[in-house]
C-alpha cells in the first residue's frame, strides 16, 4: 500500500477514535446495561455494543470490501487472513469500565493478507493514543515513540494475568518472582501501552485477536517481541496465551516457561 494512502487511512481512523472516545465519555456516568458472556467475570455492556456498531459502521462506509472482526459480533465471521481485515475491540477491560470507570481501552487494527498495516490502542481516560505501523512508525499522542529500552526481566515490572498467576500456568509465579514485581491491570490495551512506554518489560495473558491485533502491529514495529507463550509465531486469528516483552525479557521468560 502506498504511504500516502496509509497516512490518509491513519488520519481517518484517528478521527473515528476521537469521536468514539467522546461517545463513551458522554455515557460513562449513565446507568449501564450489563450482561455476562462466558462467565460472571466476562462482561458486556450496552456501551460496548453501541461503540462496536459505531466503529463497524464507519469501517463499512470507508472500506466496504473489507472483512471486520469485532469482539461483540457486529462484524463478520472471519476465517481467512486474505484481503483486508479490520479488528475492533470497542471496550477492552469491560470489568474495569463497569466497576472503576477507568483503565480501559479502545483498539482498532488493519491487516492485509495477514500483514499488519496500522494499529491503534487508546487509553480512554488517560487520553493516550498509541498509533502507527511498520511503514510510518509508532506514535504516542502524535509524537514519535522513543526507542524502547531492551530491559531484562530482572530489571523491570511485568504485567501478568491474574488467573494464570493463581494457577501458576507456565511457571507464572517464578516469572513474577524473577521480575521486580508484577502488575495486573485487567486490560490488554492498558498493559500494551505500558510496555510500549517502557513502564513494563512485558505482558503475558490469554488473548483473543481483538485483544492483541492492534498491539501486535505497534509492538513489532517498536522492536518488541510478541509470540505465543512458547515463542512460536502468533497467528492473528488465534486465541492463545500471548507473550509480549522486550527482546531480553522475552528470552528470560521463555527460559522460565520451558523449565
TrEMBL record:
Its EC number is 3.1.3.25. Its cofactor is Mg(2+). It holds the Pfam family Inositol_P. One of its GO terms (molecular function) is inositol monophosphate 1-phosphatase activity. The keyword Nucleotide-binding does not apply. PROSITE patterns: IMP_1. The keyword Metal-binding applies. It is an enzyme of class 3 (hydrolase). InterPro entries: Inositol_monoP_metal-BS, Inositol_monophosphatase-like. One of its GO terms (biological process) is signal transduction. SUPFAM superfamilies: Carbohydrate phosphatase. It comes from the Bacteria. Mg(2+) binds at residues 71, 89, 91-92, 211. Keywords: Hydrolase, Magnesium, Metal-binding. PANTHER family: INOSITOL MONOPHOSPHATASE (PTHR20854), INOSITOL-1-MONOPHOSPHATASE-RELATED (PTHR20854:SF4). This is Myo-inositol-1(Or 4)-monophosphatase. It comes from Lentilactobacillus buchneri subsp. silagei CD034.
Amino acid at each position: 500500500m502506498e504511504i500516502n494512502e496509509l497516512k490518509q487511512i491513519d488520519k481517518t481512523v484517528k478521527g473515528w477514535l476521537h469521536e468514539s472516545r467522546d461517545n463513551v465519555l458522554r455515557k460513562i456516568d449513565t446507568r449501564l446495561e450489563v450482561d455476562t458472556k462466558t462467565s460472571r467475570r466476562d462482561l458486556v455492556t450496552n456501551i460496548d455494543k453501541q461503540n462496536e456498531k459505531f466503529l463497524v459502521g464507519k469501517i463499512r462506509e470507508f472500506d466496504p470490501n473489507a472483512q471486520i472482526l469485532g469482539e461483540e459480533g457486529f462484524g463478520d465471521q472471519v476465517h481467512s487472513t486474505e484481503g483486508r481485515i479490520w479488528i475492533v475491540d470497542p471496550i477492552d477491560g469491560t470489568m474495569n469500565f463497569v466497576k472503576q470507570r477507568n483503565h480501559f481501552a479502545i483498539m482498532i487494527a488493519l491487516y492485509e493478507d495477514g500483514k499488519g498495516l496500522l494499529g491503534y490502542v487508546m487509553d480512554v481516560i488517560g487520553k493516550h493514543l498509541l498509533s502507527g505501523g511498520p511503514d510510518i512508525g509508532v506514535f504516542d499522542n502524535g509524537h514519535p515513540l522513543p526507542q524502547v529500552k531492551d530491559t531484562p526481566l530482572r530489571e523491570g515490572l511485568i504485567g501478568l494475568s491474574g488467573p494464570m498467576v493463581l494457577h501458576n500456568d507456565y511457571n507464572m509465579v517464578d516469572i513474577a518472582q524473577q521480575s521486580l514485581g508484577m502488575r495486573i491491570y485487567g486490560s490488554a490495551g492498558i498493559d500494551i501501552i505500558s510496555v510500549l512506554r517502557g513502564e513494563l518489560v512485558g505482558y503475558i495473558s490469554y488473548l483473543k485477536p481483538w485483544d492483541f491485533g492492534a498491539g501486535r502491529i505497534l509492538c513489532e514495529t517498536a522492536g518488541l517481541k510478541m509470540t505465543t507463550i512458547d515463542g512460536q509465531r502468533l497467528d492473528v486469528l488465534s486465541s492463545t496465551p500471548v507473550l509480549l516483552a522486550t527482546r531480553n525479557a522475552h528470552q528470560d521468560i521463555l527460559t522460565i516457561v520451558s523449565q
